[in-house]
TrEMBL record:
Pfam family, one: DUF1264
Protein's UniProt name: DUF1264 domain-containing protein
Organism of derivation: Aquisphaera giovannonii
Annotated InterPro entries: OBAP-like (IPR010686)
Taxonomic path: Bacteria, Pseudomonadati, Planctomycetota, Planctomycetia, Isosphaerales
Length: 214
């Protein structure tokens, strides 16, 4: 058999060592990557078990309502809002506002609710951003999505005593939220904040005799 020149043999040996080294490095890296992945998974488990996003608490809270909001600067613009609310403390609740209740519902804004004591202590310029819920509750334009009967009446009686501050960020049917946030208002029954046409009301608060919404 023909002998392999020494220079070629040395080259082949060097390549073999490089390849073996790369293989071992790959094994070490894979093992290290696996350990890193395991650590990340353990961290994720700890996070899932020890930390909850605030929205989880909101979605498990029974305070959910359907109502209609009017744009403060242009009250003829009405938007149905589905409220999912959670008390923060005795004097404050906060609500996430959606345009529906299905899986594709859009997050359209937020509403903050405070009691009369907090409202009364506000400076006059701040009060201009807050509205009451008297007419909205009395007229049936605000309804619970999760309660009925006496339980709903008790909850709405409490809401009636609160003042709200509403900001909508997605209010004109755009493909995505456009422009600045807009201040919205409750239906107060006093011009110009009058009830919108029944066809614009959510089914939950629409009178039985009203035509179906197109």
């Amino acid at each position: 058999m023909r002998a392999i020149p020494r220079t070629i043999a040395r080259t082949h040996a060097a390549l073999l060592l490089v390849g073996l080294g790369g293989f071992l490095a790959g094994l070490i890296a894979a093992r290290g990557g696996g350990e890193a992945l395991a650590r990340a998974q353990d961290h994720a488990k700890a996070t899932r078990s020890g930390v909850k996003a605030p929205v989880e608490e909101v979605l498990h809270c029974p305070l959910a309502f359907a109502g209609v909001h009017l744009e403060k600067a242009e009250p003829s613009r009405a938007q149905v809002a589905y409220h999912f609310c959670k008390p923060v403390h005795d004097g404050l609740s906060q609500c996430l506002l959606y345009d529906g209740t299905g899986p594709d519902a859009r997050l359209i804004g937020v509403e903050y609710l405070v009691g009369a004591a907090t409202y009364d202590a506000m400076p006059a310029e701040e009060k201009a951003y807050w509205h009451d819920h008297h007419f909205e509750v009395d007229s049936g334009l605000l309804r619970s999505l999760t309660q009925a009967g006496d339980e709903e009446k008790r909850t709405l009686a409490k809401v009636r005593t609160l003042y709200g501050k509403i900001t909508h960020t997605w209010s004109r049917g755009e493909a995505y939220p456009e422009g600045p946030p807009r201040l919205f208002w409750a239906v107060t029954g006093e011009a110009p904040f009058l009830p919108p046409p029944a066809a614009l009301l959510p089914a939950e608060v629409r009178p039985a005799s009203s035509p179906a919404r197109p």
